[in-house]
Amino acid sequence: MSTYVVVGLQFGDEGKGKITDVLSAKSDFVVRYQGGNNAGHTVYAGEDKFVLHLLPSGVLQSKGKCIIGSGVVVNPQSFLDEVEKLESRGLSSKNIFIDRRAHIIMPYHIQLDHYREEAAGKDSIGTTKRGIGPCYEDKVARVGIRAIDLLNPQVLAEKLKINLEIKNALFEKLYDKPALDYDEIYNNYIEYGEKIKHRIIDAVVEVNDAIDEGKTVLFEGAQALMLDIDYGTYPFVTSSSPSTGGVCVGAGIPPTKLENLIGVSKAYCTRVGNGPFPTEQDNEIGEQIREVGNEYGASTGRPRRCGWLDLVALKHACRIDGITHLVITKLDVLSGFETIKVCTAYKTEDNEIKQNFTASTTKLDDYEPIYEELPGWKGDICGISRFEELPKEAQDYIHFIEEYLGIEIYLVSVGPDRSQNIIRKELF
Ligand code: GDP
Ligand code: IMO
Ligand code: MG
Predict the structure, then answer these.
(1) Domain ranges in the chain?
(2) Which of 10, 35, 124 lies closest to 357, judged by CA?
(3) Could you tell me the pLDDT band of residue 363, with boundaries at 50, 70 and 90?
């Protein structure tokens, strides 16, 4: 048995896609277990750039199956578009499958996401407007439409009728928007079912069997712990569980089968969308990070908010995720700063020192980060592949993070390309 889980530890966009791509070259299965096409995972392979939203980032290199697990919410049009894009670039899609239990994003989910965000104005969450939240809501409300339902016209017709009646009432009466047309949706979704039926499988059996047979299975998280529905900065979160624990519910894998829990964090911090961000640098420091790090959303193109690394938040994430191996990405982006700040605690309005993350989003807004200031380094580190060759200050920065968290950093990423890595210890 050998299982690996890759998760984000901050607010998303840590470089999970790149790390999954690197590890997938040696994996038999790559499995997504939550989120949907709100994700944007960028992989550079030489001159080629790939951005994956719904498909596992393993599709580029894995020789085995790439599975969209039951915990993922699937937009069928987005799925077909991505598959087509992959094929148009000469890559095979024959190993891509969807669990029959995965919930399907319907047009009314996307509309509802738009209308709600619009109505919330300045209090909006800043969602990707892909219908992710409304789809998960229907799943929990036990009225959702699942992949398997697309293959049964009668079931689809009944479920769609019930759902659309309620959603159309909301649209017309609450939001003063037009109702959606039943026939159009029904026909489109029956067609989607036809197009994807050969890819709909029982992934729970496939993946558990693979693990039992000693195959290497990699689980790829989308979003990140600080966007987790339970442990993130609620309500400014996504609607799923991007934690390592999410693998168990989102792929039907028992906790006893999870071994290597790999957490990915940038060397600094970014956030796209609204919500608290204690170490945000809404100034020239943030600007420099954004421009050097090319911090613009892969899904929505929005500029990412940028700031210093927050070790209090990172410790919170590592604790919940039980991280066994840490990856630090984008260390190259910090080259050139005279000094680098790292948040190691927060100070409350009453001058109390907090070492742990808080559940209260409003309090978090008022907390002042306490920083350690470390010496920076100069020069391009993008071509370095041995840790000892990094400037001493960069090595010290990595050691500082390791010591604070008490977790080994096994890989330091120094550029977007799949080859730009300092691997301190081979995982497999
Ligand atoms: P994900 O959502 O966690 O997969 O991350 P994204 O792909 O949304 O965002 C990470 C961005 O940083 C992508 O554009 C990557 O190509 C890029 N990237 C990843 N690792 C590094 C790195 O070490 N250095 C630099 N400069 N860019 C990186
Ligand atoms: P990857 O996998 C960064 C953010 C949105 C918004 C909040 C809720 O690329 O790291 P949603 O559409 O999920 O209801 O939006 O979550 N968000 C992300 N931020 N990276 C992502 O994915 C994200 N997916 C969602 O900006 O603040
Ligand atoms: Mg991303």
Answers:
(1) 2-98+200-261, 103-196, 265-423
(2) 10
(3) confident
CA 169/CA 391 separation, integer angstroms: 62
Q: Are 60 and 45 in contact (CB under 8 A)?
A: yes
Q: Which bound ligand lies closest to the C-alpha atom of 233?
A: 2
Residue 165 in tokens: 């009646």
Q: How far is the CA of 346 from the centre of ligand 1 (A)?
A: 28
Q: Is 41 annotated in the active site?
A: yes
Residue 1, pLDDT above cutoff 80:
no
Q: Which residue from 35, 28, 150 is spatially nearest to 101, judged by alpha carbons? A: 150
Of 21, 41, 99, 316, which residue is the catalytic one? 41
Give me ligand 1 centre to Cα 416, in Å: 6
Count of residues in the chain: 428
pLDDT for the residue numbered 362: 83
Kindly state if the Cβ of 8 falls inside 6 Å of ligand 1. Answer: yes
Residues touching ligand 2 (Cβ under 6 Å) are 8, 11-13, 38-41, 125-128, 130, 132-133, 222-224, 227, 238-239, 272-273
Tens-place pLDDT, residues 296-315: 988 788 899 999 999 999 99
Provide the CATH number for the domain formed by 265-423 in this structure. 3.90.170.10
Once rounded to an integer, what is the mean pLDDT over residues 150-162?
Answer: 98
Q: What is the tens place of the pLDDT at every residue in 256-277? A: 999 999 999 999 999 999 999 9
Active site residue 109: no
Beta bridge partners of 148: none
Q: What is the pTM assigned to this prediction?
A: 0.97
Q: How far is the CA of 42 from the centre of ligand 3 (A)?
A: 7
Give the ligand 1 atom nearest the CA of 41: 4
CATH architecture observed for domain 2-98+200-261: 3-Layer(aba) Sandwich (3.40)
Token duo for residue 126: 């800043």
Q: Distance (Å, rounded) from C-alpha 170 to C-alpha 257?
A: 43
